Amino acid sequence: MSVNGTPLLEVENLVTHFPVPRGVVGAMSGKPKRVVRAVDGVSFALREGEMLALVGESGSGKTTTAQTILRLVKPESGTVRFEGEDISSVSGRRLRALRHRVQLIFQDPYESLDPRFRVQATIEEPLLVHGEGGRRAEREERVRDALTRAGLTPPELYLDRYPHELSGGQRQRVAIAASLVLDPKLLVADEPVSMLDVSIRAGILALLDDLRRGGLAILMITHDLSTVAHFADRIAVMYLGRIVEEGPAREVIAEPRHPYTRALVSVVPRRDPRAAADAQILRGETPNPVAIPPGCRFHPRCPIAIPECKTIDPELRAPAGARAGHLAACIRA
Asked: Which of 36, 42, 207, 262 could bond 256 through an S-S bridge, CB–CB 3.0 to 4.6 Å?
């Protein structure tokens, strides 16, 4: 919780649309304007020292949600509050101050690091951009501290290296160190382990978990439930621009209430290879976000859909018998 008792981050009914180009012929012929409904009414809250995993298939709107929160993309409507302040339309100095407190870890450590910069220059750059760190010796100390927090010790071994001299896991830790050097309060991790070997993923996730335990709030974007099942405090499942289930991580994994979440959980690898697995393979493809189906947006692929699902657009609410904080957008839940 923040000082005044409110959540660190509050997102209410966030909507982000992207216009579909009509072309010259389409504009002259009066072709109606269409939009991609990438984020279509998302609400959640995140507190200090908490990790929230935003989960869903590719194209569900997870990354666009994160980019909108960071003001890399302008929202169509809705409210984003950080530390109680509405940041939905901030700009200029206020936007720079926001990005000082909220940092992003990109998906691909091979693309996010400048190959011309040594590790020290990469991590020092945010301090120079924001005019922090004082004298050179003070900045170097903060760079070493950030490397240590990111698990690259002793830091002297890495300061003069270029990205091509690092492994994939080390590159991602350098990217994390560059995010930590400004001492942010919120870290947005966009698929931080999807480009790494399986043997390295656990170490990066454990690092993020340690940072969370130290008081840092983390919004984790991922398509893989198995990567966050043991680390996240809460899970929010997105489908076609909207959250369809949200709740405590263990509760959502053990007792999924939305059929889409059940399908995602059913394909998570089990510890015991002899354990029976009843994988639920969804039929069809995700509908076009330009023309979202009426009623429940999941009903064209839902294995338990009933006729009412084609007309009723369900809201997030507590299913019967669910624990506190567990919500699902399904009329059959």
From this structure: 262
